[in-house]
Design a protein that fits this description.
This protein has 197 residues and is an all-alpha fold. It contains nine helices and no strands. Helix 5 packs parallel to helix 8 and helix 5 crosses helix 9. The chain is elongated and about 55 Å long. The termini are far apart.
Length: 197
């Protein structure tokens, strides 16, 4: 990643523009010039902060990941039963999809780009490691509070839960009508409940 300061207001304007362009058009259909126009800055200024479109994509997804990690931690902190945990994970995914549908689009763009970009691959690897750790830590807290007693080792359980959430997230991005189908969410809660037993 670039060594330029990211707390700068212009950097944030550029990231917001990149998020819009990449989320709506996709990685391949978005150019640096379009991001600069959307941000109202010159290409030179954009490149002062971000070396490439890959770097923009990685940082945009990184920024979105931080809020989602906070959501995971909060869900585990307030869950007192296995039903609370299952509902919390389902409601968390639903909230992200309803409040920020572009986020999952960006994550899936990252998956595709990561195959050709070591920078994006490293960022995605780091993000997923953080999610697995946050999930594992939350599960460990739930075990310590006697909320769950899973038969699966916690690191494997965390990976499985994330696989279910990511897999469903991909389907909901490609079939957005499923977001409004209550059966989708009931089925997710049942699946999570089964894994947590």
């Amino acid at each position: 990643m670039s060594a330029r300061p990211r707390s700068d207001e212009k950097a944030q304007v550029i990231l917001d523009a990149a998020r819009t362009c990449l989320g709506e058009r996709g990685y391949l259909a978005t150019t640096i010039a379009e991001v600069a126009v959307e941000a109202g800055v010159s290409r030179g200024l954009l490149h002062y902060y971000f070396k490439s479109k890959e770097e923009l994509l990685a940082q945009v997804v990184r920024d979105g990941c931080e809020a989602t990690l906070e959501l995971v931690a909060a869900m585990f902190a307030v869950s007192e039963t296995i039903d609370d945990l299952a509902a919390g994970l389902a409601n968390g995914l639903r909230a992200v999809l309803e409040m920020d549908p572009i986020y999952f689009n960006l994550v899936f763009e990252c998956w595709a780009v990561a195959r050709q970009s070591p920078l994006v691959a490293q960022e995605l690897d780091d993000i997923f490691r953080q999610f697995r750790e946050a999930m594992r830590d939350g599960l460990a807290q739930a075990v310590a509070r006697d909320v769950i007693t899973p038969a699966i080792p916690l690191d494997k359980l965390a990976a499985l839960l994330l696989a279910v959430i990511d897999g469903l997230g991909l389907q909901l991005v490609t079939h957005p009508e499923m977001v409004d189908d209550e059966v989708t969410w009931e089925a997710l809660e049942m699946a999570v409940h089964s894994l947590l037993k």
